[in-house]
Specification:
It contains nine helices and no strands. The termini are far apart.
């Protein structure tokens, strides 16, 4: 049997990853079997385990990928939303991007619902904090430089705002009555502007 090229190996890895992402979104972590993932990818269990140590490791790659995609969108929205007239505009633009992601079935199922179930709450929070708090803290630090909040409040406010955003995402994933991405954004904007 001829040796596979690095390009072929990467194509197989990508096919497995894409199939897993679709399966985790539609079937949930518990419902997505290794057999269904490899069948959708058109490959074998051996190939999956060559590229990923376990189903959980594969899930973690998908989880992190979604988080990084959302993060890139939020950063781009924040950069595009900068305003000389409104110091809150960039942070709010990034927040709107987050709520857009948090309203999608893939983000809800993989990041918010199954992420906590697979990792456990403590590990989920540690991973989410590593990926999300920097963005929130940058926004809060900017508001402090503008004199809108005290410098000593940057870190605690960042922690609290990140957890407010996560809580809002969980409310969206539960489909709580009266909760929409727009209503949550409006409430977050009032909260943020009220921090003076």
């Amino acid at each position: 049997m001829p040796k596979r090229t690095p390009e072929q190996a990467e194509a197989t890895r990508r096919a497995i990853f894409d199939a897993a992402r679709q399966q985790f979104e539609t079937e949930g972590y518990a419902g997505a079997s290794i057999a269904s993932i490899v069948a959708a990818a058109g490959t074998t269990k051996g190939a999956l385990f060559h590229h990923f140590a376990s189903k959980e490791a594969l899930f973690m790659e998908v989880w992190k990928s979604l988080q990084l995609e959302m993060d890139a969108d939020a950063r781009a929205a924040a950069a595009a939303g900068r305003s000389k007239e409104d110091p809150y505009a960039a942070m709010l633009a990034g927040t709107r991007a987050y709520f857009k992601w948090a309203a999608t079935p893939a983000y809800q199922q993989i990041v918010l619902i199954d992420g906590r179930a697979v990792m456990g709450l403590a590990r989920w929070q540690a991973n989410d904090d590593r990926l999300g708090r920097d963005n929130v803290e940058q926004g809060v630090r900017y508001l402090a430089r503008k004199g809108l909040i005290s410098e000593d409040g940057v870190v605690p406010l960042s922690v609290m705002l990140l957890n407010a955003l996560n809580g809002a995402g969980f409310a969206l994933s539960r489909k709580d009555p009266g909760i929409t991405a727009d209503s949550l954004f409006d409430a977050f904007e009032k909260l943020l502007r009220g921090l003076r």
